[in-house]
Amino acid sequence: MKTAAVLAYAALAITAASAVDIPVEHIQQFVLGKASIAKELAQWKDSVAGQVAKKNGYYKEEQPVDAVLNDNHLKRFFLTKLSIAEAEKANPEATFSINTPFTLMTDEEFAQYVKRSSATVDGLNALAAANITTVTIDQPQDNSRKLATTLDWTTSGCVAGVKDQGQCGSCWAFSSVGALESANCLKTGALELFSDQQVTSCDPKSGGCNGGATSYALQYVKSKGSICTADSYPYTSGDGTTGTCNTSSCTAKTLSISSITSVSGTEAALISAIAKQPVAVAVAAGNNAWKQYSGGVLSSCETTDLDHAVLAVGYDTTSFKLKNQWGTWWGDGGYIKLKRNGANSACSVVNPYSVYPNIA
């Protein structure tokens, strides 16, 4: 498995303009079904998912309608339907839909979109050094607590609503801020929304829209001793621009982080951590299963490289529940469930890069 010090949702300007080809064995199917495909495509473009895709630059539209471009869109739509069929075979407990913003991307383009920020040797060494010197390691099992067999923090009032990072590679910031929001709420009894933009623009060790690390983000807030509220420093990097750090006029919330816990790479340790509070986790998301996921439990991802960061908010006897930040029009209202299977849990979710803050 390739472990990534830099985890990002890539800000690649996919316009769905490059030409694509239909596999030879499916050409007849495409030609015969072209009329119905065109109808479905038009409905998708008018849907919320289609409008979000257009707004975010995931495809382009020309007026008057360009025949060549429109045919390319038809081919892309058809390829996605083929990809959904493959994902369904590999994931019998999950559902997939064309109603996501990524439908006119090919699987390869989506993978590049998610994986734009890649790890470097220096980055991995820096993260390892940070973990050794400043982050404690959770034990695989905590025998002092009897863990619930099922837990969902979204029912506690301490998980913020689903957000949207847009075209910015700031998944690391969103998952870290989400972990902070929940930890603070569990400590104080009140859910306060914190600034994803501050962490994206101001964390000196991360790369803004070009990727970052959840542990670095939490260390940044720990060193500051506070974080801006979301209202006073709203998110503006959805267009893919990191922005200049400016906290001079924000409303700062005092936040005393006593320590940051790095969860050891076992399923038992991750369950134990989530039982305490929501946890920022790394996953392998640059694949067709994540691209068109709409519900159920994902049991198989065709990739294993860690390329995305999300917030683990629950579990049951068979799955982990994660909160993504691709908007509510993706997945199950913005959430996804991954199959539990020890070290072989779906999408590499069990790994040594899960972290959470401890609020004093």
TrEMBL record:
Q: Which Pfam families match?
A: Peptidase_C1
Q: Does the keyword Cell inner membrane apply?
A: no
Q: Give GO terms for biological process.
A: proteolysis
Q: Which residues form the Peptidase C1A papain C-terminal domain?
A: 147-358
The protein in question is named Peptidase C1A papain C-terminal domain-containing protein
> One GO molecular function term?
cysteine-type peptidase activity
Please state the span of the N-terminal signal peptide per the UniProt entry.
Answer: 1-19
Answer yes or no on keyword Signal.
yes
**Organism field:** Globisporangium ultimum (strain ATCC 200006 / CBS 805.95 / DAOM BR144) (Pythium ultimum)
Q: Which family does it belong to?
A: Belongs to the peptidase C1 family.
Keywords for this protein: Signal, Zymogen
Q: Which InterPro entries match?
A: Papain-like_cys_pep_sf, Pept_cys_AS, Pept_his_AS, Peptidase_C1A, Peptidase_C1A_C, Peptidase_C1A_papain-like
Highest taxon of source: Eukaryota
Alphabetical list of PANTHER family matching this protein: CYSTEINE PROTEASE FAMILY C1-RELATED (PTHR12411)
